[in-house]
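Memo subject: From amino acid sequence to discrete backbone structure tokens
Keywords: amino acid chain, backbone geometry, structure tokens, three-dimensional fold.
Body of memo: The sequence and its backbone structure tokens, given next.
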Amino acid sequence: MSFGGPTFIVAIVAITMLAWIITTAIRAKHGYPLTDDWGNSVAPLPRGDDETSKSLKAENEQLRATVGKLEERLKVLERIATDPAKRLAEDIDNLR
């Protein structure tokens, strides 16, 4: 067996990457702090059962509702801007 060949080097790199993936998965599962490529600590994502997560979900729903309303208003404005003037005048007269 040649220890200097490319197959051996590729095998070492593959084993190292697999070990890193397994180590990171175990650390994340058990709540240990995760690190980035330079060894700095990275905060884990909220699990979904804490208070911060609940408030973020509520804020997300509120923002989705606001975006939905704004999309409807934008559709109306686009229709007004692209419709012929005669149809717009008729619509305004019908509303009176």
